[in-house]
Fold:
Amino acid sequence: MLLNKSEFLFNRAQQFIPGGVNSPARAFKSVGGIPVFFNKAKGSIITDEDGNEYIDYVGSWGPMILGHAYPPVVKAVQDASFNSTSFGAPTEIEINMAELVQRMVPNVEKVRMVNSGTEACMSAIRVARGYTGKEKIIKFEGNYHGHGDAFLIKAGSGALTLGQPSSPGVTKGTAKDTLNADYNNLESVEKLLKENKGDVAAIILEPVAGNMGCIPPEPGFLEGLRELCNRHEAVLIFDEVMTGFRLARGGAQERFDVWADLVTFGKIIGGGLPVGAFGGKKDIMDVVAPMGPVYQAGTLSGNPLAMSAGLAQLSALENHPEYYVELEEKTEYLEKRMRLLLNEHEIDYDMHRVGSMTSIFFTSETVTNFSTANTTNQELFRIFFHEMLNRGVYLPPSPFESWFLANSLTYEMLDATLTAADEALEVAKAKVMS
Ligand SMILES: *Cc1c(COP(=O)(O)O)cnc(C)c1O
Structure:
């Protein structure tokens, strides 16, 4: 049998790389089949190793909000590279970046650059612990904050309070300091705060959940958390790695007008290069070394290529508020017509959209948290995904990921996506029913 190039490359990759990928979400585990290997992309069209083209709804999992190979980003990286790819010493561009972040997200009075969203979240909870002198954190089931040990903790069976490592290699000692609450459920948070009175350093969450599909905060949820953190002297951390610079210039904070104490960034902030950041109120950020005693460092942090790419992309977003309007209109266009298709095909679904993040749950339940998200029909998604892929639409290869739209999408591409979806839903429904 003739292998296509992705199959050939995946076989080769598996010999040298665990599972053939450098991050598990890429491996197509939840949809089955062979991950597609890509070698170029422009705007919203992404091309695989066999020369097939797809309309891209992954956008590198978020960073590509203005499309792939966005000319100002490409030029910025090229220009910077001629002056050295790294100094390990301060540069002016880092100040420009920090200033720009502060203009776009006004409560980020000081910011520290790191190399990934994972690093940003790990550092933010260390800072919150150092600042408050308390040790426990509250997070929400189904929210993702990268692969730091403290976040790979799931709720124990029954009791919400007893955390258990969700990955081998994470210790029980670490697990006992991470408490899991239920998303959109303030009572579950209050209960944990009461049971752990005086011990909670921080509450960390995705202000719009994007890692269990797209789930918006219910009215009052973010405000309630703000209030609880004030009352219990805990640091409120918004993980805006996905939502930052996407839902508005000032991210979810601006969109919902609820302001956290610390914020973490990643994805868009690097324009496709490996960047993360954490920042917030001056008095909290000043506990970070070398100003304060909380240690945090990075050989390549603030790297000139990464800063140049990020600065080029963020500047474009700052200077073109209409991009957010256009992008939201496009996403709404897709959402509305997708709902009509789902209705026509008489498929049970719940669909959410916040700004340019959206996703479909194939379920008759109303999805508000991890357990309701898990009622989605994964088999139906698996078939839908592959039928879309065969028709030239690259969706996130998991029923529990948001689709990330880019402003490089045209209405022709959105219409082509809807035509593909019409056929794909028909096939998927027939296969699941039989
Ligand atoms: C992607 C993501 C992270 C982790 O970022 P990496 O750069 O992959 O380490 C953390 N939090 C959220 C909300 C994310 O979506």
The chain has two domains: 5-69+321-433, 71-319. DSSP finds 14 helices and 16 strands in the chain. The radius of gyration is 21 Å.
